[in-house]
Amino acid sequence: MTYDVVIIGAGAAGLMCAATAGYRGQRVLVLDHANKAGKKILMSGGGRCNFTNLNTTPQHFLSTNPHFCISALKRYGPQQFVELVDRHGLEYEEKAPGQLFCQHRSQDVLDVLLTECEWAGVEIRLNTQIKQLVRHGDGMRLQTSQGRLDVGAVVVATGGLSIPTLGASGFGYELARQFDLEVLPTRAGLVPFTLHPELKQHLASLSGVSVPVSVSCREQAFQEPMLFTHRGLSGPAMLQISSYWQPGDGVHVNLLPGASVLEALKVFRQAHPKASLMRFLTERLPKRLAQTLCDWHQWHQGHIADFSNAQLAEIEAQLCDWWVTPAGTEGYRTAEVTLGGVDTRQISSRTFAVEELPQLRFIGEVLDVTGQLGGFNFQWAWASGVACGESF
Ligand code: FDA
């Protein structure tokens, strides 16, 4: 059997591209070194795959070339993926505004993709190592653990570096370098923060506590829940801001976003002069957090009437102007995505082909395009996969 297109990586982008190219009459083979296709899809969204976001815009993506993603996202938007899963009868729900999750399990999304690949006549070979890839005339030659293949085009859909136990590898970056493409520095994104020992000790008793906060760093702000963990800080707020954070940066946290806390403290002091600050706090924050803050900042537990305006202003600052300087992140071991990657400036935003070598293409997360939390990364995988597949 000979193939027109070989796709390296049976993940979200690779399978989407394979089905699209297969429907266009291309003989498509997907190769993956893992023993199962779509492992990240299965793990995603806490086992229920947040497969798209209805509010996707190019502004939800980080890239040194921010215009690159516009074309593909415009041609294949969230609604098109919803139509696809609807045709398969997949049941889903909007868990947060725009964020669509499987009602049952992530496997349902993978089943849609594998069924599409089957209908499109795509062949998938797992447990296959790619040993070498070279240009061969107008096409490409692959040396694999299962023999040699001469094909018209190769699509690299090997994803990022996060969670190596799910099959992640830097192979796509190695290939890019081999063909003289620039690979922008990579780092873990959508990843929990670790803390310096002293702060970690203050917050140790809070593991498992979640609280809605607003966080900001480098002119990006998010209002989402924050989760205290035994290693540091996580939850959607911290995962989101981690993609913008650089080592050494402080992260600004407001534990009581919304109304003016100083005003509320003064009103409370007027209304309940004999109540404690702890009561004010437990009406607004989880009890364990309120207690930890009182102990940490040594706020006294006498009558709130005994606090001066200056003391209340200081309490407000400690609640609403908390600057945390993380020690680091948990890294690729737990990160949802990889920031950076293959520089898109040498790639066509229409076909995803390397400009100087159109028989070689890169799609999905291996590229320097990374979505925020909320289904955007899968939408990028679908959109880039379809755009590339349609160009064959
Ligand atoms: P993906 O990683 O899906 O696929 C790459 C494939 O290439 C894998 O099958 C791998 O085995 C294969 N491969 C790698 N190296 C190879 C080699 N050398 N030879 C052969 N094959 C090789 N996003 C989102 O939008 N909503 C969500 O709910 C989540 N949830 C989530 C949870 C967790 C735990 C993680 C780690 C990630 C998410 N994500 C997410 C992110 C999302 O999973 C990710 O962005 C996409 O899977 C990227 O799709 P790709 O196809 O580019 O790579």
TrEMBL record:
Residues 4-390 form the RsdA/BaiN/AoA(So)-like Rossmann fold-like domain. It comes from the Bacteria. Keywords: FAD, Flavoprotein. InterPro entries: BaiN-like (IPR004792), BaiN-like_dom_sf (IPR023166), FAD/NAD-bd_sf (IPR036188), RsdA/BaiN/AoA(So)-like_dom (IPR055178), RsdA/BaiN/AoA(So)_Rossmann (IPR057661). Residues 187-337 form the RsdA/BaiN/AoA(So)-like insert domain. Coiled coil: none annotated. The keyword Flavoprotein applies. Its cofactor is FAD. NCBIfam families: aminoacetone oxidase family FAD-binding enzyme. This is Flavoprotein. It comes from Terasakiispira papahanaumokuakeensis. The lineage of its organism: Bacteria, Pseudomonadati, Pseudomonadota, Gammaproteobacteria, Oceanospirillales.
